[in-house]
C-alpha cells in the first residue's frame, strides 16, 4: 500500500514533472537503462533516501535528481523486498509503493 503521507506527493504535478525530467535526463545519458544492473531499461524512478513523513515536504529529498535512481522492475523489487524481508516472488511493488500480484502468463 502506498503510505498515506506519500500519496499526495506521488500525485503532485511537481513530482510528475520531476520524474519526467529525470527520465529524459537518463535517456540522454545511457538511453534510460537501469542504473543498478545497466542491462534492462529503467521502469521506476526510485528515491535513494526514501520519502518519510519528516521529509515528504523537502524538495531537496523528494525532487532532487541526485536523490533519484532509475531502476528496472527487477532491481526495484530486489531493493524493496530486501527492505521488507520478504521472499515472495509473485508480488511486486509499483511506482507508488502499492503491492501487486504478478498474474500468471
Ligand atoms: Zn536493473
Task: Characterise this structure.
This protein has a two-stranded antiparallel sheet. It has four helices and four strands, in the order H-H-E-H-E-H-E-E. The model has no long low-confidence stretch (mean pLDDT 87). The protein has one domain (4-101). The protein has 105 residues and is α+β, with helices and mostly antiparallel strands. It has helices at 4-11, 13-30, 59-62, 73-84, and strands spanning 44-47, 68-71, 91-93, 99-101. The structure holds zinc ion. The site of zinc ion (ZN) has 8 residues, from helix 4.
Helix-strand blueprint:
Blueprint: H1 4-11, H2 13-30, E1 44-47, H3 59-62, E2 68-71, H4 73-84, E3 91-93, E4 99-101
Antiparallel strand pairs: 1-2, 3-4
The protein binds zinc ion.
Q: Could you write a compact summary of the structure shown?
A:
The protein has 105 residues and is of the alpha+beta class. It is built from 4 helices and 4 strands; from the N terminus they run ααβαβαββ. The structure holds zinc ion (ZN).
Proportion of beta-strand residues: 5-15%
| Hetero groups | zinc ion
Quote the average pLDDT.
Answer: 87
| Tally of strands | 4
Distance between the termini: 24 Å
Number of domains: 1
**Total helix count?**
4
Ranges with pLDDT <50 over ≥5 residues?
Answer: none
Q: Please state the structural category.
A: alpha+beta
Amino acid at each position: 500500500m502506498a503510505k498515506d503521507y506519500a500519496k499526495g506527493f506521488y500525485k503532485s504535478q511537481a513530482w510528475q514533472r520531476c520524474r519526467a525530467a529525470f527520465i529524459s535526463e537518463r535517456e540522454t545519458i545511457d538511453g534510460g537503462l537501469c542504473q543498478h544492473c545497466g542491462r534492462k531499461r529503467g521502469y521506476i524512478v526510485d528515491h535513494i533516501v526514501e520519502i518519510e513523513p519528516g521529509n515528504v515536504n523537502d524538495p531537496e529529498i523528494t525532487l532532487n535528481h541526485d536523490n533519484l535512481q532509475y531502476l528496472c522492475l527487477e532491481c526495484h523489487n530486489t531493493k524493496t523486498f530486501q527492505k521488507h524481508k520478504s521472499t515472495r516472488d509473485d508480488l511486486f511493488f509499483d511506482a507508488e509503493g502499492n503491492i501487486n500480484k504478478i498474474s500468471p502468463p
